[in-house]
Specification:
Elements lengths: L1 H27 L4 H24 L7 H30 L3 H24 L4
Amino acid sequence: MIENFSRFLVVGVGSTFINFIFFYICQLSEFKIFVSSLIGYLAGVLNSYYWGSKWVHFKVYELEILSFTKFVLLYGINGIIVSFIIQEVQLSYELDYRICWLFGTSYGVVANFAGQKLLIFNKS
């Protein structure tokens, strides 16, 4: 269990780093903050699913398409919420876009971990 959680954290940190790099590049390219956060989030999601299913959970699914579909729906809904949080924090408080990203990502980490454990890679 602890090894599993440690691997989840490693994948999460790597995916978050990928997310931020894409977000940062989009911001430097003067994309809208909402679009930048969606692009970064998508890059992190793809990394997270691949490593989460292969290295963290070691679970082979008969219906892998179903687990991937649930993963995409969970992360897609949360990605939109994260992007709105980032945008609203930036508009409401005029904070630096990197700080806004931290607010949105904090929500995303908690929501995605809970959804992944309860809905996608559960053992029942």
